[in-house]
């Protein structure tokens, strides 16, 4: 019985080079400081979100979300919506951000649907490094962060 369950589990999962991309992947490092760096979240239902560096106080686009698929060594990302900051004022912030100390304050977020989504291709590769699993998207490294969202 245990063997049958393991066989079913193996057939139901689609590992990439022995690993799945499902999870939370942060740019450049496994360290989380005051906030997350830019990161992707890939779900088992083939949805993804990309979030900008949380310390970037000037980026109005905060999230890109949509669907993904894998074709060999190509990862296809099809953005379906963005989450953007609307309104607000440009201020010198007392919270250190990625741009000196400028940030857009007193905003609200709004989700915008992308009416004609276009799939974006990236070459991807999963490799094991000293820091842990690394997802290379073209040449940009993203590291798996466990125990997150």
From TrEMBL:
Keywords: Signal. Residues 1-18 form the signal peptide. This is DUF4488 domain-containing protein. It comes from Hymenobacter setariae.
């Amino acid at each position: 019985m245990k063997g049958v369950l393991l066989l079913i589990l193996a057939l139901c999962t689609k590992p990439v080079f022995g690993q799945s991309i499902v999870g939370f992947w942060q740019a450049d490092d496994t360290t989380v400081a005051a906030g997350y760096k830019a990161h992707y979240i890939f779900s088992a239902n083939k949805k993804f979100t990309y979030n900008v560096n949380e310390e970037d106080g000037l980026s109005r686009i905060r999230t890109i979300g949509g669907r993904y698929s894998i074709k060999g060594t190509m990862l296809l990302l099809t953005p379906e919506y963005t989450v953007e900051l609307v309104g607000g004022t440009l201020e010198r912030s007392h919270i250190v951000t990625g741009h000196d100390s400028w940030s857009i304050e007193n905003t609200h977020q709004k989700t915008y649907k992308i009416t004609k989504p276009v799939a974006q291709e990236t070459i991807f590769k999963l490799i094991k490094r000293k820091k842990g699993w690394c997802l290379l998207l073209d040449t940009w490294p993203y590291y798996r962060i466990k125990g997150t969202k």
